[in-house]
């Protein structure tokens, strides 16, 4: 019995230490999600730790691809653009489909079509793929939608659905600073 007590005592600090590391990593991620422009010094000060520790932890998360990158959240409406989503039901994933998707995204064909890809999500549910993009007008969005439909034709189960987004309440974990504009959509 005393051997079990000694083992438990030895393991306790490690469990607590691992928990503290996870919460510390989460605290750094929370700050980066809130404001990715924060300097390492500002984060360290806010966390009550030293700059080197934040820099090292952030670097490790970037190397491990926990953090893919940093982005700006754009209010497409202020640029005169509309956000759209394409919802697709596809056949089961196979090598050809995976290569087609990787190739299309890697070649950045969407940029040539004057659209900005916002998110491309492989999902589990009624729809298998959700593609969110911004376009300057409905004609451009329709051309991009048609290019998706043609490119993935042999993999589709149904015709994809094109949806335009009326208003973004939250994107990339950021609450729209003009959230109260949602009231504009209340019918008179």
Protein architecture, described:
- There is one protein chain.
- This protein is α+β, with helices and mostly antiparallel strands and 188 residues long.
- It has 2 domains: 2-63, Orthogonal Bundle (Arc Repressor Mutant, subunit A), CATH 1.10.10; 76-167 and 176-185, Alpha-Beta Plaits.
- It has 6 helices and 6 strands.
- It is globular.
- Residues 1-16 have low confidence and may be disordered.
Distance between the termini: 74 Å
Output the CATH homologous superfamily of the largest domain: Lrp/AsnC effector binding domain/regulation of amino acid metabolism (RAM) domain
Task: Give the % helix.
Answer: 40-55%
Parts with pLDDT < 50 across at least 5 consecutive residues: 1-16
Q: Summarize the main sheet.
A: 4 strands, antiparallel
The CATH architecture of the largest domain: 2-Layer Sandwich
Strands side by side in the biggest sheet: 2-3-1-4
Number of helices: 6
SS content category? alpha+beta
Radius of gyration: 23 Å
Which descriptor suits the 3D outline? Answer: globular
Query: What is the fold named in CATH at topology level of the largest domain?
Result: Alpha-Beta Plaits
The share of residues in extended strands comes to 15-25%
Count of strand segments: 6
Oligomeric composition of the shown chains: single chain
Domains counted in the coordinates: how many?
2
Report mean pLDDT, rounded to a whole number: 86
Tell me the name of the CATH class of the largest domain.
Alpha Beta
